[in-house]
Every structure is written in structure tokens, then in C-alpha cells.
Design brief:
alpha+beta, 23 helices, FAD binding, binds ligand LVS2NKGU, fatty acid metabolism, single chain, globular, AcylCo_DH-like_C, 3-stranded antiparallel β-sheet, Butyryl-CoA Dehydrogenase, subunit A, domain 3, 13 strands, Butyryl-CoA Dehydrogenase, subunit A, domain 2, 6-stranded mixed β-sheet, flavoprotein, lipid metabolism, binds flavin-adenine dinucleotide
């Protein structure tokens, strides 16, 4: 008989805050909570969205199952007449990577961002109704980070009014685009534009790659899948592809011409729109990836927290003299708390900074419509930097969550290995994290150099305008409680960031060649960029706390999490804080003392804090993280489902086990 006991009920009863209100904070609004909750339940109750066995399916079967699910998603969206908001929640909870992620996540945004109105009117209705399926073909075998170095060419032929798309070398083969391998019918292809014998840099072109009748590649096109990727399940449901062009002709009006165009006569004409708008789809996706990072991390933390409350090891004070009695919940070990609770705090921190980044991006789009490009460099730096910071921390946090679950965390049924394998490439796609931090540091060095000309930094760099104060100020913390002051914390982060940035700027002046200086100092520049991004996350968490937060205990708990997030970072980056004299060794030790008290405050609320994510068991996909905490029967049951357990004596016994055993027996007799 099924066990219906809530093994975590006692933990839930200890919560000191209103969980329902916290759910609203996490979701963003009551409306968002209601819609997401309704769609989560719809997905969880529909057998068409079941995700059992993913880890044991062969690549072909996994891919087929992802295709089936993507088609079913599309069918249900249309049958139910879901709104755009409901649709995105549906895809989110279905939780299986397929071509539709890149179609909706990159192909459509690339057309919206880089095509003219006329082009959008032609292509968007086709894409929006999935009469065509698209991919984003930028990266090549030889070049990913260095977009300017792409080799694919698009040469204008004035005789036929066409572009000739060509892959001149092996390394120019498009490599990685998702959905390209087996599904996409069209691609936005990034290529070097050549007209009238001159090169005009990278531009986007809309190219049909497969027939809409029989799905065969069109003449001149070679296309296929690039092969198995890291981990079982995970990104292997996606057909990342390779694509080569042998002088493929497309009409001139399939160059995405919002930013610049080629006339009928072959003249290249630039508009007053910055060229970087061509990279707009990347800015858009980087912003969404910050939200993905908080989801992926919160998911891992939810599993690790629930399991840590169920799992017991060693004796406890309640034991009798013989050590008999109840063992200690591993969540009560201080080491477990010091590893787990900062991750919990980070999940909340990333959620809030992601929410703010979405606002910043929406604001940019509105400004762009009025031809105001002033915030583009800052938005580029914020999306690049925060994508880098949050994905690196989330990937590390998922792996730490696996370790927090001990041996069982390594089982596929814990959900953690696949979550890690699916999420870890986010550190690479949409820009390698180090390359992106170098972009941030370039922006910051420019901001600092402009101080001399009297330009006042604004937005996320406003603190750089207070350079004199921040270079000189000292931290006033004298006892552990003094750290419970958000202004003190923010100033310590700003002081550390600015001191690292100014040191980089000063060191750069020692090089006659600025490019060489930038290259030599790049490890320091990356560290300074991380410090700046941490200022953003901490300050946005603090801004969140200043909003009208309802519900008993909710604000207090969020404050506790904000302190944990910040003080743990001080602990982790102590070298920076000490070497820049932003804090003293004594203050560092007081921060550690304060962290211990903060962990004690979180402990009774830990389960409720992960309940506030409102994840269904279907979405979590983990026997260790299920809501009821009924871990052991689920683990036991799951093991028996493995294909190896379908027969008692394994296939191959007669060929490969019995002869070995016999030989051992004969050897022993000799
Ligand atoms: C059951 C288990 C299932 C588990 C599920 C778990 C769920 C987990 C969550 C996962 C969820 C979803 C997954 C979704 C699927 C995602 C699919 C992935 C799709 C990936 C797509 C891609 O990767 S597309 C390719 C992306 N490529 C890159 O990002 C390349 C990186 N390189 C660059 O961006 C540039 O080339 C670089 C900026 C590095 C160029 O440098 P450089 O050459 O030095 O600079 P220029 O090009 O000359 O630029 C000069 C100026 O332009 C400014 N600038 C640069 N870029 C931008 C920009 N994007 N916007 C605005 N401005 C820009 C730059 O700052 C310079 O300015 P300055 O003023 O002149 O200094
Ligand atoms: C799962 C997945 C999905 C993807 N989907 C798509 C897609 O749909 N469409 C698409 O076009 N692409 C896609 N990509 C490609 C992705 O965008 C690139 O892999 C990414 O931009 C990194 O580029 P790269 O592979 O060339 O890395 P490289 O640049 O070769 O990086 C290798 C190493 O060199 C370092 N490095 C590189 N340049 C510098 C520098 N200037 N300074 C210091 N260090 C440097 C990096 O830090 C890294 O350690 C996908 C990739 C993955 C993994």
C-alpha cells in the first residue's frame, strides 16, 4: 500500500514565516504564482508529459521521445488556447530540451531584433505558427567566442540579386546550433558580408536549409547532428548540428536588414542603429539564462534540503548510553548547513537579480523603439556579467548539492546528475563565462577612464562615481552583530570592487600597448569584473528588501538570506577583501561568527523556504527531493525499474560470466 505520510510535516510545522506569501515573492506576483501553479499541475497530471526512463534511453529513443513531447506540447498549446504567458510556463514545466527551445528562444528573437518591419511581417507569422522551424547558426567549428572571426561568407551577386552563402573551409562549418541536426527547416546564419569585392563584417541571413515537402536538405547543403554530449539524458535530447554551404543562393531580401542593408546595386548602407544590435538575440538570451540559473540552483537546493532533513547519520544527544535511539538529521550538522544554506540564499539572490535584469532588458527594448541606444553598453555588460556569475555559481551549486546528498546523490534517480549535465553548458553557451567577464571589465575600464573627463557613471556603475570615498573608507564593524547592517555590507562590496578596478586601471597605464596590457592583466580584470557583478547582486537583493513585503516573518527571512549570501561571499573571497583592506582580519572572523548565527535562524525554516519554490514532484524529478520526504521506499522501488533488473540472470551470463567462473574453478583445482 502506498505510504501517504508526510515525513517532513514536523519540519514544516517549525516554519516561522508565511510560506504562501513567500511563494508569491518567489513567483514575482500573485498572478504569476496562480498561473504557474495551474500549469505545473496540468503538466504533472498529463501522462503525455511523463519523464521516466530518460537516463536509460538510447540516443535515438531519447531524441524520438523529445520530438514526440515537443509535438504534444504544441498540440496542447493550441487545443487549450494557451496565452503566451501560459505557454512559457508549460514549456518550463515540461522540462525536456528539444528544438523548440532554440526556435522560440533564439530564432524568433533574432528575427524580431535584426529584421526590418517588412521582413518581420513575412517571417514572423510563419515562425509563430511553426510553419517553419528555425535555429540560430552562429558558432562554427573553428570559431565560437570570436564572432568577428567567423568564416562563412555571404557574397552579393548583383546579376541575380542574390547572396551566395558559402563555407570556404572545414573550420567554417556551422557547429552547435540547437535543433539544426535533424529538425530545423530554416536558420538565421551569421556570415561575413561581401559586396562589390569588399568585406563588411558579420551579418545575419535567413536561409532555408530543408525542404518543407520531404525534409531533405536543399541543394548545396550538408547537415547533420554533431554527436553525443556530456551526461545521460540532458542535452542529448537536442540535435545540435553541423551545417555546410556549397554556394547556396538566397534572395537579397533575406539578409536581416534592420541595422544595415545592401541595395539592389550592391551598395552597403549603414543606418544610425549601432551595429551591436545584430548581437541582440544574445543579449536577450543571456538575460533569460540568469533566470534559468536561479531555477536550476533552486531545484538542486530543494532536493538537497529535503533529503538532508530526512537523512540521518550517527548518534544524537537523545541517544541512550549504548548509542541506541534516533540518529542526527544531517541538516543539523553545522558543516552541512554552511554548505547548503549559502546555496539556498544564492537561489533567492539570483531570482531577484534575474527579475531586475528582465526589467532592465524590457526598459532597453522600449528605449530602442525610440532610437535611444544610451543604455545598450550597460545592458550588454549586465547581461554578460550576470549570466557568467550566476551560471558558474549555479553549476557549482548543483554539484555541491549532489555531494550534500552523499552516495544517493550520484544515482540518476536523485535527479541531480541530469540537472547538472543539462545546466553546466550554460557556462559556455551564449558566451564562455570568462570571455563574457572580459567584456564586463572592458566596459568598467572605459567607465573609469571617463571619470577624468567628468562623465558621471549611472545605473549599476553609479558607485564608481564615489571613488574617492570608497577608496578611503573603512569598515566600522566591531562586533558580529554590526554585520547585520545592509549599508555596511554594500559599502564593503563596493569598496572591494572599486579598489580592484582602480588597481587594474592603474596597472594598465604601465603598458605602452593597451591591448597587450589588457591581455597581461586579464586574470585580474576578470576578478574585478566578478567583484562588480557581486555588487549588483547584493544591491538588487537589498532593493528587493525595500519593497512592500507582506506576510509574517517573510521580510525577516529574506533579510537573513541576504546576509548569508553576502557574508558567505566575503568568506569565499576573503583574499580580495583583505588585500584591498576593505575589511580587517578581525572583521572577517566576526563575519564568520555572524554566519553561524544566521544558519541557526534558517535551520527551522529550511524546508519551508524550499517549499516556497512551489515545485511539483514531476518537475523536480527526484526520489530524494519529493515533497513527502518518503525517500527510502522510493529509492528502493526506483532501483527495481532499471532495465538490468528485468532478468534475474543477466544477458551475457553464459558467454562472459560462466566461462570466467569455470576457469577460476579449474585454476583452483590445478
Ligand atoms: C529532466 C532533466 C531536464 C533538466 C532541465 C534542466 C533545466 C536547466 C536549465 C536550462 C534551461 C534552458 C536551456 C535552454 C536551451 C538553451 C539553448 C542554448 C542556445 C545557445 C545558443 C548560443 O550559444 S548562440 C552563440 C552565442 N555566442 C556567443 O555568445 C559568442 C560570444 N562572443 C561575443 O559575444 C562577441 O563576439 C564578443 C563580445 C566576445 C566579441 O568581442 P570583440 O570582438 O572584442 O568585440 P566586438 O565584437 O568588436 O564588439 C565591440 C563593441 O561591441 C560591444 N558588444 C559586444 N557584444 C555586444 C552585445 N551583445 N550587445 C551590445 N554590445 C556588444 C562591446 O562591448 C564593444 O563595445 P565598445 O564600446 O567598443 O567597447
Ligand atoms: C550545449 C550548447 C549549445 C549551443 N547552442 C548553440 C546554438 O544554438 N547556436 C550557436 O551558434 N552556438 C551554440 N553553441 C556554441 C556556443 O555559443 C559556443 O560554444 C560558445 O560561445 C563558446 O565558444 P567556443 O566553443 O568557441 O569556445 P572557445 O572560445 O574556443 O573557448 C575555449 C577556451 O578559450 C578561452 N578563451 C577564448 N577566447 C578567449 C579570450 N579572448 N581571452 C581569454 N580566454 C579566452 C575560453 O575561456 C575557454 O576556456 C552551443 C554550445 C553548447 C555547449
Amino acid at each position: 500500500m502506498e505510504d501517504t505520510v508526510d515525513h517532513l510535516a514536523h519540519e514544516r510545522s517549525k516554519a516561522q514565516f508565511n510560506v504562501e506569501e513567500m511563494k508569491i515573492i518567489w513567483a514575482g506576483s500573485l498572478h504569476a504564482l496562480q498561473v504557474s501553479d495551474r500549469i505545473a499541475k496540468l503538466v504533472a497530471s498529463d501522462p503525455g508529459f511523463g519523464k521516466e526512463n530518460r537516463a536509460v534511453l538510447s540516443r535515438k529513443d531519447l531524441f524520438k521521445s523529445a520530438l514526440k513531447k515537443a509535438a504534444y506540447v504544441w498540440k496542447r498549446i493550441n487545443e487549450l488556447g494557451l496565452s503566451e504567458e501560459e505557454t512559457s510556463w508549460l514549456r518550463f514545466y515540461v522540462d525536456e530540451l528539444a528544438y523548440d527551445y532554440v526556435h522560440w528562444g533564439m530564432f524568433v528573437p533574432a528575427i524580431k531584433g535584426s529584421a526590418t518591419e517588412e521582413q518581420q511581417n513575412k517571417w514572423l507569422p510563419l515562425a509563430n505558427t511553426m510553419q517553419i522551424i528555425g535555429t540560430y547558426a552562429q558558432t562554427e567549428l573553428g570559431h565560437g567566442s570570436n564572432v568577428r572571426g567567423l568564416e562563412t561568407t555571404a557574397t552579393f551577386d548583383p546579376v541575380t540579386d542574390e547572396f551566395i552563402i558559402h563555407s570556404p573551409t572545414l573550420t567554417s562549418s556551422k557547429w552547435w546550433p540547437g535543433g539544426l541536426g535533424k529538425v530545423a527547416t530554416h536558420a538565421v546564419v551569421y556570415a561575413q558580408l561581401i559586396t562589390d569585392g569588399k568585406e563588411y563584417g558579420v551579418n545575419g541571413f535567413l536561409v532555408q536549409i530543408r525542404s518543407l515537402d520531404d525534409h531533405f536538405p536543399l541543394p548545396g547543403i550538408t547537415v547533420g547532428d554533431i554527436g553525443m554530449k556530456f551526461g545521460s539524458g540532458a542535452f542529448n535530447s537536442m540535435d545540435n548540428g553541423v551545417l555546410r554551404f556549397d554556394r547556396v543562393r538566397i534572395p537579397r531580401n533575406q539578409m536581416l536588414m534592420r541595422v544595415s542593408k545592401v541595395t539592389r546595386e550592391g551598395k552597403y548602407v549603414e543606418s544610425n542603429i549601432p551595429k551591436q544590435i545584430i548581437y541582440g538575440a544574445m543579449v536577450y538570451v543571456r538575460q533569460t539564462i540568469v533566470a534559468d540559473a536561479s531555477i536550476a540552483l533552486s531545484r538542486a537546493v530543494c532536493i538537497a534540503t529535503r533529503y538532508s532533513a530526512v537523512r540521518r547519520q550517527f548518534g544524537s544527544p537523545q541517544n541512550d548510553q549504548n548509542g541506541n535511539g534516533i540518529e542526527t538529521q544531517v541538516i543539523d550538522y553545522k558543516t552541512q548547513q554552511s554548505r547548503l544554506f549559502p546555496l539556498l540564499a544564492s537561489a533567492y539572490a539570483f531570482r531577484f537579480v534575474g527579475e531586475w535584469l528582465k526589467w532592465l532588458y524590457t526598459d532597453l527594448i522600449q528605449k530602442l523603439e525610440g532610437n535611444d541606444f544610451s543604455t545598450l553598453p550597460e545592458v550588454h555588460a549586465c547581461t554578460a556579467g550576470l549570466k557568467s556569475l550566476t551560471t558558474s555559481a549555479a553549476a557549482d551549486g548543483i554539484e555541491e548539492s549532489r555531494k550534500l546528498c552523499g552516495g544517493h546523490g550520484y544515482l540518476s534517480s536523485s535527479g541531480l546528475p541530469e540537472l547538472y549535465a543539462t545546466f553546466v553548458p550554460a557556462c559556455t553557451y551564449e558566451g564562455d563565462n570568462v570571455v563574457l567577464l572580459l567584456q564586463v571589465s572592458r566596459f568598467l575600464m572605459k567607465t573609469i577612464s571617463q571619470l577624468q573627463s567628468g562623465k558621471k557613471p549611472t545605473g549599476t556603475t553609479a558607485y564608481i562615481g564615489h571613488v574617492e570615498h570608497l577608496i578611503q573608507c573603512g569598515c566600522n564593524v566591531k562586533k558580529a552583530e554590526d554585520w547585520l547592517n545592509l549599508c555596511v555590507i554594500l559599502e564593503a562590496f563596493e569598496a572591494r570592487a572599486i579598489r580592484l578596478l582602480v588597481a587594474c586601471a592603474e596597472n594598465l597605464t604601465k603598458f605602452a600597448n593597451p591591448l597587450q596590457g589588457f591581455s597581461e592583466l586579464s586574470p585580474d580584470l576578470v576578478e574585478a569584473a566578478v567583484a562588480h557583478c557581486q555588487v549588483i547582486v547584493v544591491s538588487k537583493f537589498i532593493e528587493k528588501l525595500q519593497q512592500n513585503i507582506q506576510g509574517i516573518g517573510v521580510k525577516q527571512l529574506l533579510e537573513t538570506l541576504c546576509y548569508i549570501y553576502s557574508l558567505n561571499l566575503i568568506h569565499k573571497h576573503l583574499g580580495d577583501f583583505l588585500s584591498t583592506r576593505s575589511i580587517t582580519p578581525k572583521q572577517a572572523s566576526l563575519a564568520s561568527d555572524q554566519l553561524r548565527s544566521l544558519y541557526a535562524k534558517v535551520r527551522p525554516n529550511a524546508i519551508a523556504l524550499v517549499d516556497a519554490f512551489n515545485y511539483t514532484d514531476h518537475f523536480l524529478g527526484s526520489v530524494l527531493g519529493s515533497y513527502d520526504g518518503n525517500v527510502y521506499p522510493k529509492l528502493y522501488e526506483e532501483a527495481w525499474k532499471d532495465p538490468l533488473n528485468e532478468s534475474v540472470v543477466p544477458d551475457g551470463y553464459h558467454e562472459n560470466i560462466r566461462p570466467v567462473l569455470k576457469q577460476q574453478l579449474q585454476n583452483a583445482r590445478l
